[in-house]
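User: I'm designing a mutation panel for IS1182 family transposase and want to avoid disrupting the core. Could you give me a predicted structure to guide residue selection? Please restate the sequence first so the numbering is unambiguous.

Assistant: Good idea. Sequence first, for numbering, then the predicted structure tokens:
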Amino acid sequence: MQGHKHFVDKVVLRFQLSERVPKHNLYRRLAELLDWDFLYAQTQPFYSHTGQPSLDPVVFFKLMLVSRLENLVSDRRLIEHCSLRLDILYFLGYEVDEDLPWHSTISRTRQLYPARVFERLFEHVFAQCVAAGLVTGHTQAVDSAFVKANASLESLCEKQPADATAPALHVAGELVAGTPLETLVTSPDHHLRRVASAHARYLRQDSGPLGRDRAQARLLSNKTHYSPADSDARISVKPGKARALNYLCSLAVDEAHGVISHVQADFADRRDSTLLPSIVAPLHQRLLDHNLPVVDVVADTNYSNGLNYALLEARGITPWIPVFGQYKPHIEGFTYEQETDCFTCPAGKKLPFKRFDVDPDGRLSKRYSAATGDCRRCPRKPTCIPKSKSRKITRTAYDAHYRRALARQQSRPGRRMRRLRQRTVEPVFGSLLQHYGLRRVNTRGRSSAHKTMLLTAVAFNLKKLLKHQPKQTRCLAITLPVPAPAGHFLRG
């Protein structure tokens, strides 16, 4: 006979949540894996001894962890999702008939805690990964990726000239006392000239198929525009993609099992090469605290910088960073003598080291110059330096570091390190952006973006820790027969 199921919405008299969540469930195992009680001591200074009880700090951090594990960006969707999952309710410590916190409470609590509390949670989870043998510290792969900010390009405003600042400025018809620094033009003049020339070049070439009558695109730059919604968001562009307001997420990944050993949020208009010192310093100290010295650091060409090579070598770390294409190790026709630190021109004249120079961007270089008399009498002068009195050569002050990096790059271990970086840090970034809610941040400000990236790294490392199964060595014992006493066979 055909059956028909009839549903009656009745009150269940006996129900235990722990019986409905299986032992192998992710969140049940996660609740048993991590001890969250240390968060109470970390967050106690941010509460008063009077007033209504606040949201439990452990519940808040568990909710943030669920948002990363479930790939949820919105706080509203997070609360809706948690209310429908029995395993998440068990992980949070809530009963079925108990109301979850409001989404606005989560946002206010996130703003209440400073970034160091989130960093303490990251350190706690990282220490467990070290204890489980997931981290060796020997080789660290470094990379960065853009994360979409919670702001729009359409809301950008033009910065005020710095010399026009006064005790008060009229903005949108209202008198505003004081002026925030991010609303002022603070870039050097030579940077502004570069932006102006780039815009002028764009306008000359921007005729297009519709001619000059069509509306021109907005010419935007971080040096001349800012976002009033999120002043820390920066305009950035990827090859083949449109411009957007982003943050830069910088990662360091241990090559042993792919555990994230460092994460930080940076401005999206910063060059990767300028960020490496701020990544290596805390990373090196964190691993030394666990008695794990760093031997190799692997990164792509964007981190190529003479100062970075010198910094890593001074710490006893080998930098496996390819040299960028503009660097030329040799000058055609000139030979370099390392002992005397001078060049020799094709005519056999010496170009000794003269002085150090610093360009407007702060790059340090060395200048080599020949004697004026040698160049005046040289028959090659009309083709070598037709308008100058003497031949000058400018080289980077870190030329020796570049040469060592180039030799490592062209060696067989250098090619192996390049493949190691590709299979270590790039898959981690793909997972974070696609499956751990890091495709965009739903907060505003660099500090809040840093908190979000720390929580994403915590969720990723916890998944690594849950999947880790230590190898068990099997021992086989064989019982050998007792040897016969001497003379046993003779008596036969």
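For picking mutation sites, this is relevant: Residues 165-177 have pLDDT under 50 and may be disordered. Residues 335 and 365 are 18 Å apart (CA to CA).
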